[in-house]
Amino acid sequence: MKAMAQTSLLSLLPARLQFLLPSRYRTYRKPIVPVMRLAGAIGAVTPFRSGLAMSNVASMLDRAFSVPGAKAVAIVVNSPGGSAAQSHLIFKRIRALSEEKKIPVLAFVEDAAASGGYMIACAADEIYADPASIVGSIGVVSASFGFQELINRIGVERRVHTAGENKAMLDPFRPENPEDVARLKSLQRRIHEVFVDLVKTRRGEKLNDSYEDLFSGTFWVGAEALDLGLIDGLGDVRSIIRQRFGEDVQFRMIEPARPPLIARLIGRRAVTGGGLIDPAEVVGALEEKAAWARLGL
Description:
Number of strands: 8
Number of helices: 10
CATH topology of the domain at 29-138 and 199-293: 2-enoyl-CoA Hydratase, Chain A, domain 1
Protein backbone atom coordinates (compact mmCIF):
# COMPACT_ATOMS: atom_id res chain seq x y z
CA MET A 1 0.00 0.00 0.00
CA LYS A 2 2.82 2.35 0.89
CA ALA A 3 4.53 1.72 -2.47
CA MET A 4 1.25 2.38 -4.31
CA ALA A 5 0.77 5.66 -2.47
CA GLN A 6 4.35 6.70 -3.21
CA THR A 7 3.88 5.95 -6.90
CA SER A 8 0.61 7.89 -6.95
CA LEU A 9 2.24 10.96 -5.39
CA LEU A 10 5.22 10.83 -7.73
CA SER A 11 2.95 10.58 -10.75
CA LEU A 12 1.43 13.94 -9.86
CA LEU A 13 4.61 15.68 -11.00
CA PRO A 14 4.17 17.66 -14.24
CA ALA A 15 5.31 15.82 -17.36
CA ARG A 16 8.15 18.28 -17.87
CA LEU A 17 9.65 17.30 -14.50
CA GLN A 18 9.17 13.56 -14.67
CA PHE A 19 12.61 13.10 -16.20
CA LEU A 20 13.85 13.50 -12.60
CA LEU A 21 12.13 10.24 -11.63
CA PRO A 22 13.34 6.67 -12.22
CA SER A 23 11.73 5.44 -15.44
CA ARG A 24 9.53 2.92 -13.58
CA TYR A 25 7.70 5.78 -11.82
CA ARG A 26 7.07 7.97 -14.85
CA THR A 27 3.55 8.24 -16.18
CA TYR A 28 4.76 10.21 -19.19
CA ARG A 29 7.33 8.66 -21.50
CA LYS A 30 8.88 10.31 -24.52
CA PRO A 31 8.24 8.53 -27.79
CA ILE A 32 11.20 6.50 -29.04
CA VAL A 33 12.17 5.85 -32.67
CA PRO A 34 15.13 3.58 -33.41
CA VAL A 35 17.20 4.78 -36.39
CA MET A 36 19.53 2.59 -38.43
CA ARG A 37 21.64 3.48 -41.48
CA LEU A 38 21.88 1.09 -44.40
CA ALA A 39 24.70 2.51 -46.47
CA GLY A 40 26.92 1.18 -49.25
CA ALA A 41 26.76 -1.21 -52.17
CA ILE A 42 24.75 -4.38 -51.61
CA GLY A 43 26.46 -7.75 -51.87
CA ALA A 44 29.71 -9.30 -50.74
CA VAL A 45 31.00 -7.81 -47.49
CA THR A 46 34.47 -8.50 -46.12
CA PRO A 47 36.32 -7.30 -43.01
CA PHE A 48 37.99 -4.65 -45.19
CA ARG A 49 35.07 -3.73 -47.42
CA SER A 50 31.90 -2.28 -45.97
CA GLY A 51 28.52 -2.68 -47.57
CA LEU A 52 25.14 -4.29 -47.07
CA ALA A 53 24.31 -7.97 -46.78
CA MET A 54 22.11 -10.05 -44.51
CA SER A 55 25.21 -11.13 -42.61
CA ASN A 56 25.83 -7.63 -41.25
CA VAL A 57 22.29 -6.23 -41.28
CA ALA A 58 20.23 -8.94 -39.56
CA SER A 59 21.45 -8.21 -36.01
CA MET A 60 20.91 -4.47 -36.48
CA LEU A 61 17.34 -5.07 -37.62
CA ASP A 62 16.65 -7.38 -34.68
CA ARG A 63 17.93 -4.74 -32.25
CA ALA A 64 15.98 -1.94 -33.89
CA PHE A 65 12.68 -3.80 -33.73
CA SER A 66 13.34 -4.92 -30.13
CA VAL A 67 13.59 -1.43 -28.63
CA PRO A 68 10.87 -1.26 -25.95
CA GLY A 69 8.11 1.22 -26.69
CA ALA A 70 9.31 2.02 -30.23
CA LYS A 71 6.70 4.04 -32.13
CA ALA A 72 8.33 3.27 -35.49
CA VAL A 73 11.64 2.16 -36.96
CA ALA A 74 13.44 4.65 -39.21
CA ILE A 75 15.75 3.30 -41.91
CA VAL A 76 18.15 5.73 -43.57
CA VAL A 77 19.07 4.31 -47.00
CA ASN A 78 22.11 5.38 -48.98
CA SER A 79 22.90 2.76 -51.62
CA PRO A 80 23.45 2.54 -55.39
CA GLY A 81 22.21 -1.05 -55.36
CA GLY A 82 24.02 -4.32 -55.92
CA SER A 83 23.05 -7.95 -55.37
CA ALA A 84 19.39 -8.60 -56.15
CA ALA A 85 19.28 -11.59 -53.80
CA GLN A 86 20.76 -9.72 -50.83
CA SER A 87 18.47 -6.75 -51.48
CA HIS A 88 15.45 -9.05 -51.48
CA LEU A 89 16.56 -10.87 -48.34
CA ILE A 90 16.95 -7.59 -46.46
CA PHE A 91 13.57 -6.39 -47.77
CA LYS A 92 11.86 -9.57 -46.56
CA ARG A 93 13.49 -9.43 -43.14
CA ILE A 94 12.33 -5.83 -42.60
CA ARG A 95 8.78 -6.71 -43.61
CA ALA A 96 8.73 -9.82 -41.42
CA LEU A 97 9.90 -7.93 -38.33
CA SER A 98 7.51 -5.04 -38.99
CA GLU A 99 4.53 -7.39 -39.21
CA GLU A 100 5.65 -9.54 -36.30
CA LYS A 101 6.27 -6.61 -33.94
CA LYS A 102 3.46 -4.48 -35.40
CA ILE A 103 5.83 -1.52 -35.75
CA PRO A 104 5.63 0.76 -38.82
CA VAL A 105 8.75 1.48 -40.86
CA LEU A 106 9.76 4.82 -42.35
CA ALA A 107 12.56 5.02 -44.94
CA PHE A 108 14.66 8.11 -45.63
CA VAL A 109 16.85 8.42 -48.72
CA GLU A 110 20.18 10.22 -48.49
CA ASP A 111 22.30 10.39 -51.68
CA ALA A 112 20.55 7.48 -53.35
CA ALA A 113 18.13 4.61 -53.03
CA ALA A 114 18.71 3.10 -56.45
CA SER A 115 18.12 -0.40 -57.79
CA GLY A 116 18.53 -2.75 -54.79
CA GLY A 117 18.69 0.30 -52.54
CA TYR A 118 15.20 1.26 -53.67
CA MET A 119 14.04 -2.35 -53.20
CA ILE A 120 15.10 -2.11 -49.55
CA ALA A 121 13.38 1.27 -49.19
CA CYS A 122 10.16 -0.33 -50.44
CA ALA A 123 10.08 -2.41 -47.26
CA ALA A 124 9.01 0.79 -45.49
CA ASP A 125 5.40 1.87 -45.09
CA GLU A 126 6.44 5.36 -46.16
CA ILE A 127 9.46 6.63 -48.09
CA TYR A 128 10.92 10.14 -47.88
CA ALA A 129 13.81 11.67 -49.79
CA ASP A 130 15.77 14.87 -50.11
CA PRO A 131 14.94 16.95 -53.22
CA ALA A 132 18.46 16.16 -54.48
CA SER A 133 18.32 12.42 -53.72
CA ILE A 134 18.53 9.86 -56.52
CA VAL A 135 15.60 7.42 -56.48
CA GLY A 136 14.57 4.53 -58.72
CA SER A 137 16.70 2.59 -61.21
CA ILE A 138 14.18 -0.26 -61.15
CA GLY A 139 16.10 -2.61 -63.39
CA VAL A 140 18.79 -5.28 -63.46
CA VAL A 141 22.35 -4.85 -64.67
CA SER A 142 25.31 -7.16 -65.10
CA ALA A 143 28.75 -5.80 -65.94
CA SER A 144 32.12 -7.46 -66.46
CA PHE A 145 35.26 -7.22 -68.56
CA GLY A 146 36.68 -9.12 -71.53
CA PHE A 147 40.37 -10.00 -71.31
CA GLN A 148 40.79 -12.43 -74.20
CA GLU A 149 42.86 -10.00 -76.29
CA LEU A 150 45.06 -9.13 -73.32
CA ILE A 151 46.05 -12.70 -72.50
CA ASN A 152 46.77 -13.39 -76.18
CA ARG A 153 49.00 -10.33 -76.33
CA ILE A 154 51.06 -11.29 -73.30
CA GLY A 155 51.28 -14.94 -74.29
CA VAL A 156 49.05 -16.51 -71.64
CA GLU A 157 47.19 -19.71 -72.47
CA ARG A 158 43.77 -20.07 -70.83
CA ARG A 159 43.02 -23.60 -69.58
CA VAL A 160 39.49 -24.36 -68.36
CA HIS A 161 38.14 -27.85 -67.70
CA THR A 162 34.49 -28.30 -66.73
CA ALA A 163 31.89 -30.98 -66.11
CA GLY A 164 28.82 -29.36 -67.62
CA GLU A 165 28.88 -27.44 -70.88
CA ASN A 166 27.64 -24.18 -69.37
CA LYS A 167 29.82 -24.19 -66.28
CA ALA A 168 32.22 -21.59 -67.72
CA MET A 169 29.48 -19.33 -69.07
CA LEU A 170 30.61 -15.71 -69.65
CA ASP A 171 34.25 -16.51 -68.96
CA PRO A 172 35.93 -13.08 -69.22
CA PHE A 173 39.05 -14.63 -70.77
CA ARG A 174 37.17 -16.04 -73.76
CA PRO A 175 35.25 -14.32 -76.58
CA GLU A 176 31.63 -13.57 -75.69
CA ASN A 177 29.24 -16.36 -76.67
CA PRO A 178 25.81 -15.15 -77.95
CA GLU A 179 24.11 -18.13 -76.31
CA ASP A 180 25.61 -17.14 -72.94
CA VAL A 181 24.37 -13.57 -73.40
CA ALA A 182 20.86 -14.81 -74.25
CA ARG A 183 20.85 -16.98 -71.13
CA LEU A 184 22.01 -14.06 -68.98
CA LYS A 185 19.30 -11.78 -70.37
CA SER A 186 16.68 -14.43 -69.61
CA LEU A 187 17.82 -14.54 -65.99
CA GLN A 188 17.81 -10.74 -65.80
CA ARG A 189 14.22 -10.59 -67.12
CA ARG A 190 13.05 -12.93 -64.38
CA ILE A 191 14.78 -10.94 -61.65
CA HIS A 192 13.37 -7.73 -63.14
CA GLU A 193 9.85 -9.20 -62.98
CA VAL A 194 10.33 -9.94 -59.27
CA PHE A 195 11.51 -6.37 -58.71
CA VAL A 196 8.63 -4.80 -60.64
CA ASP A 197 6.02 -6.95 -58.87
CA LEU A 198 7.53 -6.01 -55.50
CA VAL A 199 7.37 -2.27 -56.25
CA LYS A 200 3.80 -2.52 -57.55
CA THR A 201 2.71 -4.48 -54.49
CA ARG A 202 4.34 -2.14 -51.99
CA ARG A 203 3.53 1.19 -53.67
CA GLY A 204 0.10 0.18 -54.99
CA GLU A 205 -2.12 2.97 -56.23
CA LYS A 206 0.48 5.58 -55.29
CA LEU A 207 2.43 4.70 -58.44
CA ASN A 208 2.03 6.73 -61.59
CA ASP A 209 2.63 3.66 -63.73
CA SER A 210 1.37 5.39 -66.84
CA TYR A 211 4.89 6.77 -67.18
CA GLU A 212 6.53 4.45 -69.70
CA ASP A 213 10.03 4.65 -68.20
CA LEU A 214 8.97 3.81 -64.64
CA PHE A 215 10.44 0.29 -64.73
CA SER A 216 13.09 0.86 -67.38
CA GLY A 217 16.00 1.36 -65.00
CA THR A 218 15.75 5.16 -65.19
CA PHE A 219 16.33 7.13 -61.98
CA TRP A 220 15.02 10.50 -60.82
CA VAL A 221 15.65 13.19 -58.22
CA GLY A 222 13.41 13.47 -55.18
CA ALA A 223 10.74 15.84 -56.51
CA GLU A 224 10.32 13.79 -59.69
CA ALA A 225 10.16 10.57 -57.67
CA LEU A 226 7.36 12.13 -55.60
CA ASP A 227 5.36 12.94 -58.74
CA LEU A 228 5.81 9.35 -59.90
CA GLY A 229 4.65 7.91 -56.59
CA LEU A 230 7.99 6.26 -55.84
CA ILE A 231 8.20 8.16 -52.54
CA ASP A 232 5.67 9.70 -50.15
CA GLY A 233 7.26 13.04 -49.43
CA LEU A 234 10.34 15.23 -49.22
CA GLY A 235 12.25 15.65 -45.99
CA ASP A 236 14.95 14.27 -43.72
CA VAL A 237 14.73 11.79 -40.88
CA ARG A 238 14.91 14.36 -38.07
CA SER A 239 12.28 16.75 -39.38
CA ILE A 240 9.78 14.10 -40.48
CA ILE A 241 10.06 12.05 -37.29
CA ARG A 242 9.63 15.16 -35.13
CA GLN A 243 6.58 16.23 -37.16
CA ARG A 244 5.10 12.76 -36.71
CA PHE A 245 5.86 12.04 -33.06
CA GLY A 246 6.52 15.44 -31.49
CA GLU A 247 9.45 17.67 -30.65
CA ASP A 248 10.46 15.54 -27.66
CA VAL A 249 10.83 12.28 -29.62
CA GLN A 250 13.97 10.33 -28.72
CA PHE A 251 16.12 8.92 -31.51
CA ARG A 252 17.79 5.62 -30.62
CA MET A 253 20.73 5.05 -32.98
CA ILE A 254 21.30 1.39 -33.88
CA GLU A 255 24.97 0.99 -34.74
CA PRO A 256 26.44 -1.89 -36.76
CA ALA A 257 28.58 -4.42 -34.98
CA ARG A 258 32.29 -3.65 -35.22
CA PRO A 259 34.47 -6.17 -37.07
CA PRO A 260 36.76 -8.37 -34.97
CA LEU A 261 39.86 -6.66 -33.60
CA ILE A 262 42.23 -8.76 -35.70
CA ALA A 263 40.40 -7.78 -38.90
CA ARG A 264 40.59 -4.10 -37.97
CA LEU A 265 44.31 -4.36 -37.26
CA ILE A 266 45.05 -6.18 -40.52
CA GLY A 267 42.91 -3.74 -42.45
CA ARG A 268 44.75 -0.78 -40.91
CA ARG A 269 48.13 -2.27 -41.86
CA ALA A 270 46.95 -2.79 -45.44
CA VAL A 271 45.70 0.78 -45.76
CA THR A 272 48.85 2.29 -44.27
CA GLY A 273 51.21 0.21 -46.39
CA GLY A 274 52.13 -2.22 -43.63
CA GLY A 275 50.71 -5.21 -45.46
CA LEU A 276 49.60 -6.54 -48.82
CA ILE A 277 46.22 -5.56 -50.23
CA ASP A 278 44.12 -8.36 -51.70
CA PRO A 279 43.54 -7.63 -55.42
CA ALA A 280 39.96 -8.82 -54.98
CA GLU A 281 39.42 -6.00 -52.50
CA VAL A 282 40.71 -3.49 -55.05
CA VAL A 283 38.38 -4.86 -57.74
CA GLY A 284 35.47 -4.77 -55.27
CA ALA A 285 36.18 -1.14 -54.44
CA LEU A 286 36.29 -0.27 -58.14
CA GLU A 287 32.99 -2.06 -58.74
CA GLU A 288 31.36 -0.10 -55.91
CA LYS A 289 32.76 3.14 -57.31
CA ALA A 290 31.33 2.22 -60.72
CA ALA A 291 27.89 1.60 -59.17
CA TRP A 292 27.88 5.10 -57.69
CA ALA A 293 29.26 6.57 -60.91
CA ARG A 294 26.27 5.23 -62.89
CA LEU A 295 24.16 7.60 -60.79
CA GLY A 296 26.49 10.52 -61.38
CA LEU A 297 27.73 10.38 -57.77
